[in-house]
Amino acid sequence: MDAVEVRNAETFFASAPPLRDRDAIVAKVEEFVQRRLPTASGNRASRMVCITSGGTTVPLERKCVRFIDNFSSGHRGAASTECFMKAGYSVIFINRRGTAQPFCRFLPEDPLLTCFEPAGDNLIQLIPSHAVAVQKAVTEYHSALNSGHLLNLPYTTLFEYLEILKIVSLSLRQLQRNCMFYLAAAVSDFYVPWQSMVEHKIQSGVGPMAMELAQVPKMLMLLRHLWAPEAFCVSFKLETDVKILIKKAQAAREKYGMHAVVANELETRKQKVIVVTNEGQVLVEKDASQADVEIPLVDFLIAQQTSYIEAGGANVLVV
Amino acid sequence: MDAVEVRNAETFFASAPPLRDRDAIVAKVEEFVQRRLPTASGNRASRMVCITSGGTTVPLERKCVRFIDNFSSGHRGAASTECFMKAGYSVIFINRRGTAQPFCRFLPEDPLLTCFEPAGDNLIQLIPSHAVAVQKAVTEYHSALNSGHLLNLPYTTLFEYLEILKIVSLSLRQLQRNCMFYLAAAVSDFYVPWQSMVEHKIQSGVGPMAMELAQVPKMLMLLRHLWAPEAFCVSFKLETDVKILIKKAQAAREKYGMHAVVANELETRKQKVIVVTNEGQVLVEKDASQADVEIPLVDFLIAQQTSYIEAGGANVLVV
């Protein structure tokens, strides 16, 4: 691994604003991972996946009024969480505040005001056409949380996202090849370093505004080679221009040593994706019986991880 | 009024992406305003206020992955909507999707998942500690909508915001001095003109990224002098640096001919504001009995508008 990459990452973290509730997050993650480790009584470890979802923000001012945001509804991450849980995985769901939550993807925007109505005497009731969907969503979401197989970690900024991802990686690595990273979040490529960020709101004045943004260090490299080197790593490449998509996915796989890169094009991403591995490209498409492309995608990746675990030799925990 | 400003605004609108549902929005606004106009049977017009709330986004790419956002929770706009309705005004609430809604400001984030729990058999129930707040919010919100005195118009981008504001202005002007604009939204100062916007996702490549943003035409000028020249106009100035705040508020009042500019500093804006009018500055502060600074602020502005209506002469409709 490139020493420059490591130094860039160290500089990034050293200059990032302190993560609020860091100790509580570390403790929650460690407790969640410990419960999945094999015990003396012979319990086998379950597999665990860290799913990242939604887009990160990049503040342009310290007292943040303006920021650059990356659009992502979080539907892919939420749907994939459901699929992995169904397959028996425990899930650490690192998600942007306000984006889609597992089991709740089909609710309308602002479900409280849309799905309930006054019923007199300050009481409220579910509007009949929404009742089944709302009851199912709340029930399934809480069951997943209460099962102890889902850990929900929200973020907003790029800084929070990367700090949390690092915390999770350094804990999950204990599961060796039984853990997977499924990095579906839309992460900013550019940012304003905290040190050089203006304290106050940028003044509008006259004429156009020029802005210079620094590149975010390539954290995939660190995750793959330093933080959790045995984990099965899946990253996502979203492009709006299909002509460059596959080439960029292949380049990302080689550069960062990903086990799989999921290439998706903005307009067709809900029907099909192309998975690039060291064996080539595979088109993964949902069939008529499947509600989401994440169903065949997660199946495919789980099979890939199983091969990876089996190739890993005797000291690896197999479910 | 400066011919350059008018031309800049025309260029902006001509090059903006078409507003989705434009015809439906025009019809809704016109119907809402018509119901408040005096009829032959002698009904007097009620006063009406257009409140803008939340922050606008500026897309950086046409197939929008990245955008610049302006932070605003929308609490001021939502609280002010409640105050104006209590005072008998009808309210057109132009608000950023997902930001605070009137009567719902004190609910937790994601209230459906936070305030409800499974009750077995796929049924759900309100968690007792949240029950009163949720029932009150849903009841009051729907009552306000059903009363016919609240029109809710959501936006996301700067383009949508300005198109909707223009539509509302050109309709509200019929109410002459009986209408108010209360422009609390955090509107982008800079944008990427649609014509010069790249079609596809900006490529990260190597090295830092330079971005040049154009100034948004000063629409306050058009609103005040062309779209609704008799309306009582209130704009807001938010700064994080208190040293320049008042000077900027005074400059905005003079430049755009606002009837009042509300100057607020990021850290103290929930306790006090300074209102700049042509008569000077007035400190408006909430007292111990008041839940929100919007209560005395809206009182103050309504009194100012009443004077403005009374000064307007006989052809003006007085409530």
From TrEMBL, chains A, B:
A GO cellular-component term linked to this record: nucleus
Matches recorded under InterPro entries: CoaB-like_sf, DNA/pantothenate-metab_flavo_C
Pfam family, one: DFP
UniProt-recorded Gene Ontology molecular function terms: phosphopantothenate--cysteine ligase activity
GO biological process: coenzyme A biosynthetic process
Superkingdom of origin: Eukaryota
All residue ranges annotated as the DNA/pantothenate metabolism flavoprotein C-terminal domain in the record: 47-95, 173-287
Family of this protein: Belongs to the PPC synthetase family.
Protein name: DNA/pantothenate metabolism flavoprotein C-terminal domain-containing protein
Organism, scientific name: Physcomitrium patens
Source taxonomy: Eukaryota, Viridiplantae, Streptophyta, Embryophyta, Bryophyta
